[in-house]
Design a protein that fits this description.
Length: 87
């Protein structure tokens, strides 16, 4: 293996490693939309959610109200969802 080949191989390995890291991050970022589609679309479409411009506190109240009405969102899912909604 000459030096150029070694360099290209190392660069390829680094590239794949960084791709792997990125896809793990993308996985957690996708949780927000997944939870939204799973827990918040049974009773109304997502336009209500998309049109709402709420801060964290207001979302806490809204999601708590949706739970009282019947959304089966768990506390963990609620935390992830609100992080996503206030971004
Ligand atoms: C069991 C049915 C049901 C589910 C599930 C549900 N909602 Fe609702 N949602 C309603 C009803 C009924 C209203 C209108 C009455 C009201 O506002 O209380 C509403 C209204 C809303 C509104 C507009 C009113 C406001 O306060 O801004 C938003 C935003 C909203 N929902 C978000 C959500 C989110 C986010 C979820 C998922 C965590 C969700 N909903 C899940 C029944 C539901």
């Amino acid at each position: 293996m000459n030096r150029l080949t070694a360099f290209v191989a190392a660069a390829a390995i680094l590239f794949f490693l960084s791709m792997g890291g990125m896809s793990i991050q993308a996985g957690t970022e996708d949780e927000g939309p997944r939870i939204l589609n799973l827990r918040c679309t049974q009773c109304h479409d997502l336009r209500r959610v998309e049109n709402a411009n709420k801060n964290r506190h207001q979302w806490e109240n809204t999601v708590d109200r949706m739970r009282l009405i019947g959304s089966r969102i768990s506390p963990d899912e609620k935390a992830v969802l609100i992080d996503y909604l206030v971004r």
